[in-house]
Amino acid sequence: MIKFFLMVNKQGQTRLSRYYEHVEINKRTVLEAEVIKNCLSRSKDECSFVEYKDFKLVYRQYAALFIVVGIDQTENEMAVYELIHNFVEVLDKYFSRVSELDVSFSVSEIHLLSLFGVCSSSYCLHSTDCHSSQCRCSPVLHLESCSIWTECT
Q: Edge to edge, what strands does the sheet with 2-9 contain?
């Protein structure tokens, strides 16, 4: 199960945080500082999976942004690693080359995309019958037209 989702810049500033379990505000700041320090201090040659306290961290770096996901011990790290990549692809399509400024100034859109975009992107990637010329497996089209995402046909 995913415990939290963080988007952080190279300076260690949190640009977006989303928690899926209740964590007190003062504990969040300590947790984020430790997690960020753990991930940013690693070299590019090291693995993107880190054991941390009672959960695992899965992270990826995209230009100046790090995306860090905290998961429990039973979650599949590679699936979460791919989920992060799918989420960044959705952001790239929506913002036409996403940047740190997009994340900073479009928090509501990012939250919306995190709710619908990744799910629809993942579904379409695994769907074999998604051949609609309108859909083209792009969750962005569904969001821009303000319709709730439905199954690609």
A: 14-19, 2-9, 65-71, 55-62, 49-52
Q: Give tens-digit pLDDT for 46-76.
A: 999 999 888 999 999 888 889 999 999 999 9
**Count of residues in the chain:** 153
As beta bridge partners, residue 62 has 65
pLDDT tens-digit series, residues 116-137? 544 444 444 333 333 344 444 4
Residue 7, burial from CB neighbour count under 10 angstroms (0-12, 13-18, 19+): buried
- Give the torsion sign (CA, 84, 87, 88, 89): positive
Q: Max alpha carbon distance in the chain (Å)?
A: 48
Q: Which pTM value belongs to this model? A: 0.70
Residue burial 86-107, b: 16+ Cβ < 10 Å; e: rest:
bbbbbbebbbeebebebbeebe
CB 57 within 8 A of CB 39: yes
